[in-house]
Design goal:
Blueprint: H1 7-15, H2 22-35, E1 38-41, E2 45-48, H3 50-56, E3 69-76, E4 79-85, H4 92-104, E5 109-114
Parallel strand pairs: 4-5
Antiparallel strand pairs: 1-2, 3-4
Length: 115
């Protein structure tokens, strides 16, 4: 099950013993933000929405949108590193987009992209 939670909501759940692992929450949030870059398509099921990418990300850098996803999150001394596959390590626009939203929601995150 995916949990889309702001950090403060997750901390409240943690206090009462009902919080999912932070890494799973962050992974779900990153994948939600990635899916937000697509639109439904009658033939392909989904298609990248170029206008939305321009609006939210700007220049995303080289990306394989067909398999783009966060596959792993690890915690390192209070900072969470989200590993996103199928994007160039220099996909700085995508990294900034994901990091800025996660930080707005209270999560200290660094996004690393790789093929």
């Amino acid at each position: 099950m995916d949990f889309l939670l702001r950090r403060k909501d997750w901390e409240w759940l943690k206090e009462i013993g009902k919080a999912p692992p932070a890494e799973k929450v962050i992974q779900a949030l990153v994948n939600f933000l990635i899916v937000s870059l697509f639109r439904p398509d009658p033939e392909l099921v989904f298609r990248v929405d170029g206008a939305r990418v321009d609006q939210l990300v700007g220049d995303p850098g080289p990306i394989n949108y067909g398999d783009l996803r966060c596959w792993h999150v690890e915690e390192r001394d209070g900072l969470y590193v989200a590993h996103v596959g199928e994007a160039d390590p220099g996909a700085y626009g995508l990294q900034r987009y994901l990091e800025s939203w996660l930080r707005r929601w209270g999560w200290p995150v660094l996004v690393k992209t790789d093929w």
